[in-house]
Amino acid sequence: MASLLLFLLTCILCRGIYTAEFRGPDAADIPKSDPKGQTARSDKNKEKTKLRSVIPLVDKNGDGKISVQELAAWTAKSMKAFYKQEADNRLSGLDTNKDGKVSWEEYAKGAENRGAFTEKQRKRERRRFEHANVNKDSLLSSDELISMFHPEESPNMFGVIVEEFMEFVDSDKRCFLSFDEYKGKTADRGNTDQRTAKESFKRLDQDNDGRLNKEEMKLWLAAVNTSSQAKNQAQRQVSMADDNKDGVLSEMEIVNHVDVFTGGREGQTVRDEL
Ligand SMILES: [Ca+2]
Ligand SMILES: [Ca+2]
Ligand SMILES: [Ca+2]
Ligand SMILES: [Ca+2]
């Protein structure tokens, strides 16, 4: 369940961050509307102004249009900056001896302080810690710490996460994931219907033997990492806002579809595609 939770959290987090990054940090402070609807209108105008100010930063080749690639790169960059900031904050909380790194003892102490750190969890976290510690100095740097909380970002973590996941879902302990087991984990909250689950399962089942082996499960992880999600999201956003169907977005197309970039439903389908 922890890994599934991780997938869900990642998706939810991404939804929030993508839109927050594009909208700018203080939009949440603006009241939604007043009885005359004037505040709502001025909200929209503020969001449009912010969007306009971001466009030149996204438009890497400076041709005045935003391509899927430019949008995806911007989104991924924003997400990664957020992960880095998050890891720096966590590090300063965990690093009790102030050497700028997190030892296993410091990490475990932090988990204990948050409450209910069972022996099983300790074992699992320890295994993650070992894999995240790329340079094997027994300490996690801020960059290595990202792998603990966002293992989908680091291919060196895929093996251990698949192990964890299989411990939870491989009900018949055959080291393969059947469609029923997969469906049970992706469709159990009503967010993915049977048909979508079947399609995504088929995509992952590369050797077509009707079950997922560990290597195929790693593809699943690769599909939820920031770059993949950013690419999917950028494709959807461009197709939703590209009024003249030339495959890129002009400033006017972006501003005319402010909702596509500043909130609402975008990101909703990320998990459905897994
Ligand atoms: Ca461009
Ligand atoms: Ca330390
Ligand atoms: Ca297979
Ligand atoms: Ca266009």
Automatic annotation (TrEMBL):
Keyword annotations from UniProtKB, A to Z: Calcium, Signal
SMART domains: EFh
Signal peptide region: 1-19
SUPFAM superfamilies with a match to the protein in the record: EF-hand
Region (Disordered): 27-51
Record has Calcium as a keyword: yes
Domain of life of the organism encoding this protein: Eukaryota
Residue stretches of biased makeup (Basic and acidic residues): 27-50
Domain EF-hand: 46-81, 82-117, 192-227
GO cellular component: endoplasmic reticulum
GO molecular function: calcium ion binding
Designated name of the protein: EF-hand domain-containing protein
Species in which this protein is naturally found: Desmophyllum pertusum
